Amino acid sequence: MKKGEVPPVPDKDNQCHFFVSRKHRYCSLSARKGRRYCGEHSHLNVSSSSVGASESDAAVASASTTTTVSVRIPCPLDPNHTVEESKLTKHLLKCNARVIAHPYRVDNVNVARAPLPTVRRVQELTMTEIAALVASVDAAFTAMEDMEGGPIPTQILTHASLDERKSQKENVKHVVQQASLVGHVERIGGLAGEQHMYVEFGAGKGELGHYIHRALTWPPPPATTDANDDEPLSSRARFYSIDRSNFRQKFDRYMEVERLGLDIKDLQLARVPSLRRYLHLPALDAAPDTSAAPAAIKPVVAFSKHLCGGATDLTLLCLHNYEQDVASELANLFADSNAAAQAVHSAVIAMCCHHRCSSDTYLGLEWLARFGLREADVPILGQMSGWAICGERPKKQADNADNVGEEEEEPEHEVPEDDDQGVEGSNKGEHYSGMTHAQREAVGQRVKRVLDFGRVMWARGHGMRAHLVRFVERETSLENCALIVQAPLAQ
Questions:
Q1: Using CA atoms, how far apart are residues 134 and 140, in angstroms rounded to an integer?
Q2: How far apart are CA 227 and CA 221, in angstroms?
Q3: What pTM does this model have?
Q4: Which of 1, 36, 130, 454 is deepest in the core (most CB within 10 A)?
Q5: 3-class SS of residue 139
């Protein structure tokens, strides 16, 4: 089927007939019996002529007919979902996108700088401008490999706590990634149990956190050698999951974890009440007690799979701010305290979706500036990074064929919506960049690594040890690079 053609409507029972143009497939949600469209697209049920409607047809279909079907409108808090207009007031009281006041929510506390007033798109550049950017990226990539003594190493690790999970699944790509990330946390000394606190950023359903927790309790006691995933395992280490979205089928039910529902950009970690109690710090509204020093600070071990775009930068700055906040507070309470030197132990972050990097969050500007790249180039570089994965995404049916009856796997990355034009004819140089698909893919890979190494340089500039590693093969995941950050060695 040629690109741009709309395929026949699905013959699967109760599948929504809304055609998602940017994904070139029909909506996968279910419609109620007797309806053609799911709840999100139910406004199209008003007309039989809207079968196979696409995003551009929605407004026309809803405006050209009258019916008793309740009108759905975009939610004012999050336009990515809709709500019946008659139930809007009630919906706003319980919408997952509503802002809930918390003592640890501070607007934009982890945002590096103000956003630029205007952002250029790579499609707006001339071929000469694109070629200049590519030359700068090539220079930065070469400098990175010279500094690091060669290409980014591949270190595929594993952990025994996931061996049984691997044997239970035919498609093991997600488990292999999780096992390697758990192995990297172990390799840098992050599985020390209750000596540490564990924070999963961009947690989603919390699956990686579940396996970190599982690794802490491995091997299980003899009475529970079967390691049943349905029975919570006990660990006295403190766990936190952070995500701005709410998810069904969370892995939280398998462990004791506190979920913080907010954007990482607004999280001031040192103000989380339960964390302060765990560290024996005074409550925010309590008078300080300087009569006794608090117990030894339990360093944070942070981790994530996969952390989208600028969320990696937000996480790094959140951890840095946490360390500074704890150091400042302990210095005010106890003049001779040095407990904050290890407020953060390490971070293991599998990165993805570099096309979502933004100029206001990206931390590696000093690194980019060495090669003539500016703050305004960051979103453009982000778009160019999407070339690395456009046109290579495996079919969803193949990924999920072995998961019938299981909890749905979280998607690990997304393909940019508008950077795949010219894929079919790119060998003829039809793309706006003048490059073939193979050339763009190579450029996209280098852009990703240059952006990632900027984060490495930022971490090193703030006293941390940091490096990049390929934690799985590219055949397992297109986004196979992880950032490893560790506290400085004790003097």
A1: 10
A2: 9
A3: 0.81
A4: 454
A5: helix
